[in-house]
């Protein structure tokens, strides 16, 4: 189940965002309790796409337990282009939760918000996320070499994308 964030998500989010293995390929450091409170407050405000700069942030839940979270946000000066991101608890991997959640996010992006294009950008060392992109139908579009300074080193970025017409094609 995907749902918006709630105050009681703080502890389950800390379980995985506080883990250096989970945040290794993310742009942020492992969460501290203060960072977690700030992030949760921000994410609770991201309830839909209605203008450039807006976002939809959702928690993935299975049998009442938070297993991860996903997001869709606009890019540029329009709502017709979006970007997606995700993070999942290590104990929930390998069960299809991320695949199902991200397919739902793409459906929301294209069918509800009528976006023209959605991308995912990820650390090129993140093999699991690259495989997820391919599973959900995002196409590899490029590799940006050493374009991001992250956690003390230059990293490459992989770019994946999908157009609305590709979503609608079986």
From TrEMBL:
Domain N-acetyltransferase: residue ranges: 1-159
PROSITE patterns linked to this entry: GNAT
InterPro entries per the UniProt record, alphabetical: Acyl_CoA_acyltransferase, GNAT_dom, N-acetyltransferase
Protein name: GNAT family protein
Organism (species): Isoptericola chiayiensis
């Amino acid at each position: 189940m995907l749902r918006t964030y709630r105050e009681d998500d703080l502890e389950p989010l800390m379980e995985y965002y506080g883990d250096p293995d989970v945040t290794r390929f993310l742009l942020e450091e492992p969460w501290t309790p203060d960072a977690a409170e700030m992030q949760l407050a921000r994410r609770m405000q991201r309830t839909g796409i209605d203008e450039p700069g807006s976002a939809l942030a959702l928690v993935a839940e299975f049998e009442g337990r938070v297993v991860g979270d996903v997001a869709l946000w606009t890019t540029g000066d329009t709502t017709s282009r979006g970007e997606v991101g995700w993070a999942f608890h290590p104990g929930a991997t390998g069960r299809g939760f991320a695949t199902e959640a991200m397919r739902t996010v793409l459906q929301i992006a294209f069918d509800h918000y009528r976006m023209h294009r959605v991308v995912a950008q990820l650390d090129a060392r993140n093999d699991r996320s690259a495989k997820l992109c391919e599973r959900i139908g995002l196409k590899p579009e490029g590799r940006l070499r050493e374009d991001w300074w992250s956690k003390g080193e230059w990293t490459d970025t992989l770019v994946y994308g999908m157009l609305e017409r590709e979503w609608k094609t079986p």
